[in-house]
Design a protein that fits this description.
The chain is of the alpha+beta class. It is about 35% helix and about 20% strand. The protein is built from ten helices and 15 strands. α1 runs antiparallel to α10, α3 runs parallel beside α10 and α9 runs antiparallel to α10. The protein is globular and about 55 Å long.
């Protein structure tokens, strides 16, 4: 596992466009962050430096962000493989280096993974009351149909983590669903499996993060199935883009702690005269640097835990 300091020095200097042009494989999809290529028996995921806010992809991006997210996912995939198998293939480094001939830059932001069928829900686990969960609690004292005790505040730790799945939206926001609705979408047997796996993964991540002085407030997992129906953890895992991480020393009930993600970007955009529609504004270089440092900090602290 590459250290935080080493990763900072090795952050890719080749543009993602140049990297994509060097890949001799058909592109099959392009997401908010990742470019996806068909490698016949596997798939290549390339994490770009794109960053979005208020559902708008902003120009410029955050240099090195894709490499940081990819390497942090690798860290978690390795640490959690005894809980849930993941989509990384055994000879992945040979494919990236030898078959595709990717530079070190390209390897840092790329993963060769199994071809799997993604489930039609995203698996969200919440250990603290924040974001949309806090809003739902204020209205109904429940989140996604899960009834919670009275008297909780913003950022309160829940008596135990709760599983609150969502739909998968191709555009816009994912929508929360109840347990009954999620069972209808994926089937009761699969629902029970991913709920159990998601809660185990969250608890493992929460314990490790606390050792680093960080709180894992909530996170999102995605799962896919192979032709036999076996489940695998896919996409990314426990990154700042898929999780809400807080500085443990700053956590207090009743306030929204600063998070290790793109909150710096969102706060900056709120100061601008922008209607939150495409095209988004260019980010000031100081905001770009602060955001990059925030991503690097959470990576360094988490991966330093033994």
């Amino acid at each position: 596992m590459i250290s935080g300091e080493a990763l900072k020095k090795a952050l890719p200097k080749v543009s993602v466009r140049e990297l994509q042009e060097s890949i001799e494989a058909p592109k099959i999809a392009s997401g908010k962050v990742r470019e996806i290529f068909d490698l016949d028996e596997s798939i290549l995921l390339v994490a770009t430096d794109r960053i979005s806010a208020f559902d708008v992809i902003l120009p410029g991006g955050i240099p090195g962000k894709g490499a940081i997210l990819t390497q942090l996912s690798r860290f978690w995939f390795e640490r959690t493989k005894s809980i849930a198998p993941n989509h990384l293939i055994p000879n992945e480094d040979e494919i990236l280096r030898d078959k595709l001939g990717l530079s070190e830059d390209g390897q840092l932001r790329s993963m060769a993974v199994k071809k799997l069928r993604p489930l039609d829900i995203e698996c969200v686990v919440r250990g603290y009351l924040a974001g949309s969960g806090w809003g739902a609690y204020q209205e109904s004292q429940s989140v996604c149909g899960v009834h919670l005790p009275e008297g909780l505040n913003l950022a309160s730790q829940l008596p135990e983590p709760i599983f609150t799945p969502t739909t998968k939206a191709q555009e816009g926001h994912d929508m929360p669903v109840t347990e009954a609705e999620a069972r209808e979408i994926v089937g009761s047997g699969i629902f029970d499996q991913v709920k159990e796996l998601s809660e185990k993964l969250y608890n493992f991540g929460h314990r490790l993060a606390r050792k680093a002085g960080i709180i894992l407030a909530d996170t999102k997992f995605e799962f896919g199935q192979d032709e036999t129906g076996k489940l695998y953890l896919i996409d990314e895992a426990l990154t700042p883009d898929s999780s809400r991480y807080w500085e443990a020393s700053e956590w207090r009930e009743g306030i929204s702690p600063a998070s290790f993600d793109k909150q710096i970007v969102r706060d900056y955009l709120e100061t601008l005269d922008w209607d939150k529609t495409d095209p988004g504004p260019e980010l000031h270089y100081d905001i770009v640097e602060k955001t990059q440092n925030r991503y690097l900090e959470v990576y360094s602290r988490l991966t330093a835990v033994t």
